[in-house]
Amino acid sequence: MVNIILCGAPGSGKGTQSDFIVDKYALTHLSTGDLMRKEMASGSELGQLLNSYISQGHLVPDDVTLQLLEQYIDSLPKDTKGLIFDGFPRTLNQAIQLERLMKKRGDKTAMLIDINVPEDEIIRRLLERGKTSGRADDNLETIKERLKVYHEQTRPVDDYYELIDKYVRIQGLGKVSEIFGRISRVLDKIYK
Ligand code: ADP
């Protein structure tokens, strides 16, 4: 599998852009947040554990996250072309573990695409989403905590991929189609 990572603050549009990428490039969308919400909805013990972190705007511990991720990857059909990692890796340790896993499987991460959106716009979008999303973490207090966590824990992931020459930053403001155009220019080179 040749995979890409979509990175960006909560509300930067990773999920929206993933839908377009899936359609055009036949990749498989893997959102760790979605995986976790599904587990929470099942009411399992693991789901309750996840909820205790997510509802506070904190990250789920790396070992739990990685186990969920590996289980999901193992369940994929053998002919899966590639994954869009959305919301993963979110810590430097997750990035290092991901690269280790890719190497072990003979897969690779081609590029991290960082969707850049100013913070006031992020807060506006998440509050708007909170009106209908039903997500316990889309309220102002938790949004601020999630942004803090993003700056402190997830930014180093960008630096890591920049260091290994697999980093591209794109402007995340504008029409959804314009942003997809910017992403497409990157992906056209990877999936020729
Ligand atoms: P958003 O990008 O809007 O924050 P996500 O669905 O990606 O939404 O994540 C929601 C929450 O799920 C995060 O705040 C965190 O608690 C948890 N989560 C998702 N992905 C990870 C991850 N890779 N590592 C740890 N926690 C995660």
Walk me through what this model shows.
The protein is an alpha/beta fold and 192 residues long. The mean pLDDT is 97. The longest helix is centred in the last third of the chain and has 24 residues. It has a five-stranded parallel beta sheet, sandwiched between helices. The protein is globular. Helix 2 packs across helix 3 and helix 6 crosses helix 7. It contains eight helices and five strands, in the order E-H-E-H-H-H-E-H-E-H-H-E-H. The two termini are 14 Å apart. The site of adenosine-5'-diphosphate has 19 residues, from helix 2 and helix 3.
Question: What's the quick description here?
Answer:
The protein is of the alpha/beta class. Helix content is 59%, strand content 15%. The chain contains 8 helices and 5 strands.
Bound molecules: adenosine-5'-diphosphate
Shape: globular
**How much strand?**
5-15%
Distance between the termini: 14 Å
Question: Which consecutive residue ranges, at least 5 long each, have pLDDT under 50?
Answer: none
> What percent of the residues sit in helical stretches (DSSP H or I)?
55-70%
The side-by-side strand order for the widest beta sheet comes to 2-3-1-4-5
The secondary structure category is alpha/beta
Total helical segments: 8
Can you write the helix and strand succession as a string?
EHEHHHEHEHHEH
